[in-house]
Each structure stands twice: as C-alpha cells, then as structure tokens.
C-alpha cells in the first residue's frame, strides 16, 4: 500500500512512519509548511511546524530511507484555521484550532491531495485506534495509553477519512516506549519535547495575539443581574470559566471569586458570576458529524467529552430537526459556545458537534428577587 506519512518533526510521527515502513508499505514522508514566517523557530516545547521541525522531519525520513517533501499549506491554514480562530473569538465563541486543523487541513486538504497523487492512505502519529466492527465498518477508538489518547481531536473525522488513515501508535502502552523505540532506531528526535499551546501563538499570549488582530475596545463587566462590576479592553480576550484577568471594581456580596459566565460580542459585554453558575444542564449544536456509523436511534446514551483532557461525562444525546443536543447526568462544569463536544460509546467515538447553545443549571435571580 502506498502511504503518505505526515511528519511534523516530532518523535511520534517519526516512529509512526518507521512502523509503516516495517509493515511493508511504500512510504513517502511529507512535512506541512503552515506558516510563511520564514524566520520562525521553535521555543522549547512551544509551537510547531517551524523550520527546525521541518529539518528534524527530513533527518528522520533520511534515517528511514524514504522520500521526503515539504508541502506548502500556509494559505489554506491561514484561511481555514487562523482566520476561523479570530472570527470565532470575535463572535464570543471559544474555538479549538487543533480540531479545525485536523478537520480541514490534515484529514481533508492533505488526504485529498494524497489520494489525487495515488496514495492509498495517510499515516500520522496520533494516539488512537482503528477497529473493524462485525459488519466490516471502521470504528475510531481511544488509544491504549489513556494519558496520550487523542481520539477527542480526531472526533471530526468521517467514515470515508477513516478508510484512508493509519494510526500506528494507537496500541502503544506509553509514550516512554515510543521514545525508547525512536532512540533504538537512531532517530535524533527521540527526546525532543512535545509541542504545547497553539502552534501559531508560540509565546502563549493568546490575549495579546488577538488584541493585535481584533483591536481593543473598552466594555462593561456585569453580574447576572446586569449590574456593572468592572470593565475590560475587549470581550474577545475572555472565555467561559475564566477567573484570572478580571478587572472587578465591585466585590461579590459573599466575597467569593467570580468567573466568566458569558461573552456578548455585540454589546462588548462580559458576564460574571459565582462558580456554581458555570454548571451546564444542556448543550446543543447543528454542526455535527458521525465518526463511522451513525446512531440507529434519534435518542441514545453516550459519554461526552468537552475538552481534550476532560473526563467523559455520562449523558443522553438526542437528534431532533437537525440539532444534536446532550443532557449530562451530572451538569458540565462550564461550557463555552464554540467548544467541541465529542460523543463516545465506551472507547468508540460516535461523533462530534460544535456547541452553539448552552443551558445553565442555575437559574438567574432577577434584581427584585435578590436578597
């Protein structure tokens, strides 16, 4: 089988490519150039897709004896990931750029180009497992190493994409074993730090990065009754559940910390309240996909994960008139519109949707009803 190995320059993708070679596939390595900032260099474990990463990927490919290319996807990445990230924050939502990158770049644009060039599959270093059910259909499952499981960020994949994807690391019990294997193979990336944070914001200053692109504008911070309790320099800098960075001039009546409950971009207003008000009784959205076979019933039990490293929560999902809604058995702790909810059946990924609406589990007290 002709396999295109997506090589980020890290240890995971290098070992995944090596295992694809060992499996007897005709492997070609490719590194994605996602930034046109030619002088960009990696800073420790921050950032990725840099010149340094490209060179590391090339050295790994040379060691494996496979052809290697660099594909320029910088314009597509800018349009589909970076601009989407800015637009979502500007609209008061909290996006996950890794989900968008997997959905629109790595498993859409790259896979499409690979198939056009005659490749049969794309191989990546993600930690997830592909299995075949009784009917022969492919399923996406959590990785053996729960600490490294990346099935959440792969929840955007469709059945057709799964049919042309390989995840050679999914059954590996630990990342330490991957590093040991890389060292044994003579790969120089064996002990390279993992990348963290948003790759196009390597210094980690998301608020400053957004301010440069969206600008600043003074607005009010209000409590749940609408009373002004502080001010800010741009609603885009806040997300639901945030505690730090709030300039509150009026303390809470009970003296407890307050958290961001809602971001209203039209009025440039941020709503804050007590931690218990973050409890979310229901989430819903109409941008959903199924990972493999679709559920047989319009209402079904599932586990739901709302962040990459969050614990799954038992819930009931319902599809009604093109809207997928989820009611957890125990309220979620703060969900922001724009987040991705991934649905599971045990270890199997059912599908995902982008959260558009949330319902609080704590009713709002009117001004008149306040004690």
Automatic annotation (TrEMBL):
<feature type="binding site">
    <location>
        <begin position="6"/>
        <end position="13"/>
    </location>
    <ligand>
        <name>ATP</name>
    </ligand>
</feature>
<feature type="binding site">
    <location>
        <position position="32"/>
    </location>
    <ligand>
        <name>ATP</name>
    </ligand>
</feature>
<comment type="similarity">
    <text>Belongs to the MnmA/TRMU family.</text>
</comment>
<feature type="site" description="Interaction with tRNA">
    <location>
        <position position="339"/>
    </location>
</feature>
<comment type="function">
    <text>Catalyzes the 2-thiolation of uridine at the wobble position (U34) of tRNA, leading to the formation of s(2)U34.</text>
</comment>
<dbReference type="InterPro" id="IPR046884">
    <property type="entry name" value="MnmA-like_central"/>
</dbReference>
<dbReference type="InterPro" id="IPR046885">
    <property type="entry name" value="MnmA-like_C"/>
</dbReference>
<feature type="binding site">
    <location>
        <position position="125"/>
    </location>
    <ligand>
        <name>ATP</name>
    </ligand>
</feature>
<keyword id="KW-0547">Nucleotide-binding</keyword>
<dbReference type="Pfam" id="PF20258">
    <property type="entry name" value="tRNA_Me_trans_C"/>
</dbReference>
<dbReference type="InterPro" id="IPR023382">
    <property type="entry name" value="MnmA-like_central_sf"/>
</dbReference>
<dbReference type="InterPro" id="IPR014729">
    <property type="entry name" value="Rossmann-like_a/b/a_fold"/>
</dbReference>
<feature type="site" description="Interaction with tRNA">
    <location>
        <position position="126"/>
    </location>
</feature>
<protein>
    <recommendedName>
        <fullName>tRNA-specific 2-thiouridylase MnmA</fullName>
        <ecNumber>2.8.1.13</ecNumber>
    </recommendedName>
</protein>
<keyword id="KW-0819">tRNA processing</keyword>
<keyword id="KW-0694">RNA-binding</keyword>
<feature type="domain" description="tRNA-specific 2-thiouridylase MnmA-like C-terminal">
    <location>
        <begin position="282"/>
        <end position="351"/>
    </location>
</feature>
<dbReference type="InterPro" id="IPR004506">
    <property type="entry name" value="MnmA-like"/>
</dbReference>
<keyword id="KW-0067">ATP-binding</keyword>
<dbReference type="Pfam" id="PF20259">
    <property type="entry name" value="tRNA_Me_trans_M"/>
</dbReference>
<keyword id="KW-0808">Transferase</keyword>
<feature type="active site" description="Cysteine persulfide intermediate">
    <location>
        <position position="199"/>
    </location>
</feature>
<keyword id="KW-1015">Disulfide bond</keyword>
<feature type="domain" description="tRNA-specific 2-thiouridylase MnmA-like central">
    <location>
        <begin position="209"/>
        <end position="273"/>
    </location>
</feature>
<dbReference type="Pfam" id="PF03054">
    <property type="entry name" value="tRNA_Me_trans"/>
</dbReference>
<feature type="region of interest" description="Interaction with tRNA">
    <location>
        <begin position="148"/>
        <end position="150"/>
    </location>
</feature>
<feature type="active site" description="Nucleophile">
    <location>
        <position position="101"/>
    </location>
</feature>
<keyword id="KW-0820">tRNA-binding</keyword>
<keyword id="KW-0963">Cytoplasm</keyword>
């Amino acid at each position: 089988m002709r396999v295109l190995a997506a090589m980020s320059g890290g240890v995971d993708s290098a070992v995944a490519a090596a295992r694809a070679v060992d499996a007897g596939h005709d492997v070609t390595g490719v590194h994605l150039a996602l930034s046109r900032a030619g002088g960009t260099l990696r800073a420790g474990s921050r950032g990725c897709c840099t010149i340094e990463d490209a060179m590391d990927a090339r050295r790994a490919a040379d060691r494996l004896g496979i052809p290697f290319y660099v594909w320029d996807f910088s314009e597509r990445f800018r349009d589909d990931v970076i601009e989407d990230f800015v637009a979502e924050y500007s609209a008061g939502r909290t996006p996950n750029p890794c989900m968008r990158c997997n959905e629109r770049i790595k498993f859409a644009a790259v896979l499409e180009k690979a198939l056009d060039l005659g490749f049969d599959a794309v191989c990546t270093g993600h930690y997830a497992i592909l299995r075949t059910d009784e009917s022969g259909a492919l399923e996406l499952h959590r990785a053996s190493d729960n600490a490294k499981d990346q099935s959440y960020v792969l929840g955007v994949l469709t059945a057709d994409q799964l049919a042309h994807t390989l995840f050679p690391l999914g059954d590996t019990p630990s990342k330490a074993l991957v590093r040991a294997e890389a060292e044994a193979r003579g790969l120089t990336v064996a002990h390279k730090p993992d990348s963290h944070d948003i790759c196009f914001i390597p210094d980690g200053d998301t608020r400053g990065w957004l301010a440069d692109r969206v600008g600043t504008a003074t607005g009010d911070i209000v409590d749940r009754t609408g009373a002004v309790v502080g001010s800010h320099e741009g609603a885009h800098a806040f997300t639901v559940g945030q505690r730090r960075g709030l300039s509150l001039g009026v303390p809470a009546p009970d003296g407890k910390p307050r958290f961001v409950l809602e971001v209203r971009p039209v009025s440039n207003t941020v709503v804050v309240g007590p931690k218990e008000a973050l409890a979310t009784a229901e989430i819903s959205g109409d941008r959903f996909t199924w990972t493999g076979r679709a559920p047989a019933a319009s209402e079904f039990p599932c586990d739901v994960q709302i962040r990459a490293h969050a614990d799954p929560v038992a819930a009931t999902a319902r599809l009604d008139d093109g809207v997928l809604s989820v009611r957890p058995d125990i309220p979620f702790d703060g969900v922001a519109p724009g987040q991705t909810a991934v649905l599971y059946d045990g270890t199997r990924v059912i599908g995902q949707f982008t959260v558009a609406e949330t319902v609080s589990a704590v009713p709002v007290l009117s001004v008149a009803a306040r004690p």
